[in-house]
């Protein structure tokens, strides 16, 4: 029976993915490298998303010097959810952890990374047009299997605890993390809310990002995921 249930689940997941991919994909979804879901505790965050999304995240690794560690859920071959949490084995850096990650902070969709290349040129161009993306910096972490991933990214530290403007990331020759992450849900929509939407729309438009921004009581990023059990909204 367990084998049969597993086969049915796999077929259902494949059907969901095929249905979504056969539809026209909004431009903003093609830009998503990963979503950052900040949680106060990694084990608790993984368990909560397993309950909501029906898949248990794959452990990622530590971010040396950043005071964080993560786990991943693939949304496709080149996009994923990063569950980002404080790392008990590291002290918090002097400037605080990116995205306001802290043991006392609530779980939330805190930001997102857009696919990028030639990031120095991209960041220089954005700065000239009034959108500071911060310096381009290297990053790395070691997977549990010993493989080291390396990347460059624009500075997520220039963003507040919840950011609607993405940071940009380039994996260069490293395998994309989604390849080895547990797979299940499919990202079908990404939008935002802001008390003054025009303040968010202007920098997004400057970067060529067509993220819908509606009026809302607070700055909020909202992702809609389709799972085999139905639609789930993360915010």
What do these coordinates show?
With 235 residues, the protein is α/β, with parallel strands linked by helices. It has a single domain (2-234), classed as 2,3-Dihydroxybiphenyl 1,2-Dioxygenase, domain 1, CATH 3.10.180. 25% of the residues lie in helices and 35% in strands. The protein has five helices and 13 strands. The chain has helices at 2-22, 27-31, 42-53, 119-128, 197-206, and strands at residues 32-38, 58-63, 68-76, 79-86, 108-115, 136-142, 148-154, 167-170, 182-183, 186-194, 213-215, 220-227, 230-234. The strands form two sheets. Strands 1, 2, 3, 4, 5, 6, 7, 8 and 9 form a nine-stranded mixed sheet that branches. A hairpin with a 5-residue loop joins strand 6 and strand 7 (148-154). Residues 1-25 have low confidence and may be disordered.
